[in-house]
Amino acid sequence: MKNILLIGCGHMGGSLMSGWSKSKNYTISVIDKKKHSILKKRNRNKKIKFFKSIDDIKNHNNLDYIIFATRPFELTNVFKELKNVNFNKKSIAISVIAGKKTEIFKKNLLNINKIVRVMPNMPALIGEGVHCIYTNKFINKKEIKEINDLFVLSGKTLFLIVKLL
Ligand SMILES: NC(=O)c1ccc[n+]([C@@H]2O[C@H](COP(=O)([O-])OP(=O)(O)OC[C@H]3O[C@@H](n4cnc5c(N)ncnc54)[C@H](OP(=O)(O)O)[C@@H]3O)[C@@H](O)[C@H]2O)c1
Fold first, then answer.
1. pLDDT in tens, 106-128
2. Which of 5, 47, 116, 164 sits between 20 and 30 A of 39, alpha carbons compared?
3. Mean pLDDT for the chain?
4. Does the beta carbon of 13 lie inside 6 Å of ligand 1?
5. What is the domain-level CATH number for residue 37?
């Protein structure tokens, strides 16, 4: 079982979540500042939990994936909220946020080296998305396969592998 933390459950975060929720392989913790209680009321899936803030989540050490799905300008606030969170070195940060480079995640998240950027699109909502995925050099082959498993649940995947000479 893999543990996902989703930060931001709007159009894109919610679409990806609906894909993951169909698999028995994931538990999902969702942080959404304003919508957490309405999302909680509507939810019928026991493997999805909703929270107002990272402070409401007891264990930050068992997360396999931390998914960033807020609007780009909200990321500064998200980093402030995560400032003192001691993530596990093995956790993978995955951002679907347009225009934010991997370096900014490395700079602002404690212990995180493994970073992935994904450019999805809205047909992900009905499992028909196309996800273009970039992984940094700290992601190994096994993790690439697992990241693929995450995103094929909402559509096709296309990996951009950059080889450093
Ligand atoms: N939509 C697309 O087609 C698409 C395609 C590719 C990439 N993206 C990327 O996906 C990201 C999200 O886009 P979207 O269309 O899903 O936007 P959205 O619907 O506005 O979703 C953003 C969500 O993040 C929540 N949020 C804001 N601040 C937060 C915080 N500090 N902690 C937790 N949650 C917070 C927002 O809550 P409130 O609304 O209550 O503030 C909202 O639910 C963007 O960065 C965008 O570049 C989107």
1. 999 999 999 999 999 999 999 99
2. 116
3. 94
4. yes
5. 3.40.50.720
